[in-house]
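User: tokens in, sequence out, please.
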């Protein structure tokens, strides 16, 4: 734990002061010798908020949080089957900024920005600049939703939808709440984990006032990501009436053990968050070294079933291109 990185700064300042220098990161963690393992692709450079670094252990080259953000030479390895657009999202993009894959839900990518760059991110090659909704696209999105009465839920995604200002976010909420067929607005975000102060009073007050159900799906992969400050902010969101769920990615060397998954579920629950999905890795180019095979994932899941209560078991799933739902991993295979 690096105490001097724990800060009371507002979230915007923390966002702007994120670490982007590998030398600085390795210096803070006293891991300068790792510099020989580094490769930084131009399209997806290092970015990690100081509050997240503060949760890492100094001198631990195997730290599970560090492993998620440190660019590694293995990202250069070309592995068959790992591609730039593993979910074929470019084919499900009826209008700029909008993805329609699931029958009753659409996903809006309102920003390409993230507070943190996760090395396994399946959207790391996504062309956000060509896909940001401008004012014309804004109107097209509203028309698209109203022309599809089966849509009752909008998922704000990105990038990270909480990396935009409250002013911009509230404008989206106003727009969506005015569409009467919508019952639920969902936010997919990693910001409450990496900069918990993002759940500021103005945001929570606005969410509490929404006429829609507000669901916040955070993204947390390891129990160490939830310290006391993070848990306190998450509990505040819960008090504001936000339903809190977590999706994690099963990552080799980060959380692919029974102990890590049990600790994650328990820590989430203590912070008022229910485990929702445990995804096996989307096969994105540059991230093959994070993958674990389905049999190992299934074995791990069986072990978790023996330990955790049902309400703390995430669903073990894989997302596949052109499938209108997340596909459960067949845990009964050969048992
Ligand atoms: S926060 Fe989410 S979208 Fe952003 S890099 Fe990480 S996994 Fe990808």
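Assistant: Sequence out:
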């Amino acid at each position: 734990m690096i105490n001097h990185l724990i800060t009371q700064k507002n979230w915007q300042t923390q966002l702007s002061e994120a670490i982007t220098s590998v030398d600085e990161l390795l210096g803070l963690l006293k891991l300068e010798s790792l510099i020989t393992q580094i490769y930084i692709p131009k399209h997806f450079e290092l970015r990690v908020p100081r509050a997240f670094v503060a949760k890492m252990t100094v001198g631990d080259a195997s730290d599970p949080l560090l492993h998620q953000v440190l660019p590694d030479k293995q990202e250069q390895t070309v592995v068959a089957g790992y591609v730039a657009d593993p979910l074929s999202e470019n084919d499900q993009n009826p209008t700029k900024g909008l993805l329609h894959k699931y029958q009753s839900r659409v996903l809006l990518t309102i920003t390409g920005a993230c507070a943190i760059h996760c090395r396994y991110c399946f959207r790391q090659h996504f062309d956000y600049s060509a896909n940001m909704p401008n004012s014309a696209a804004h109107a097209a999105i509203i028309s698209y939703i109203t022309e599809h009465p089966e849509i009752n839920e909008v998922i704000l995604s990105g990038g990270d939808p909480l990396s935009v200002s409250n002013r911009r976010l509230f404008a989206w909420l106003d727009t969506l709440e005015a569409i009467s067929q919508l019952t639920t607005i969902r936010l997919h975000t990693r910001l409450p984990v990496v900069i918990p102060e993002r759940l500021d009073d103005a945001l929570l007050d606005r969410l509490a006032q929404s006429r829609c159900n507000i669901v916040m799906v955070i993204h947390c992969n390891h129990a160490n990501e939830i310290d006391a400050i993070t848990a306190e902010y998450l509990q505040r969101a819960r008090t504001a009436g936000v339903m809190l769920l977590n999706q994690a990615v099963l990552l080799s060397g980060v959380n692919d053990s029974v102990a890590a998954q049990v600790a994650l579920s328990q820590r989430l629950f203590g912070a008022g968050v229910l485990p929702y999905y445990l995804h096996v890795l989307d096969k994105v180019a540059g991230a093959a070294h994070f993958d674990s095979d389905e049999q190992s994932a299934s074995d791990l899941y069986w072990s978790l079933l023996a330990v955790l209560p049902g309400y703390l078991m995430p669903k073990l799933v894989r997302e596949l291109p052109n499938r209108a739902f997340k596909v459960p991993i067949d845990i009964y295979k050969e048992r």
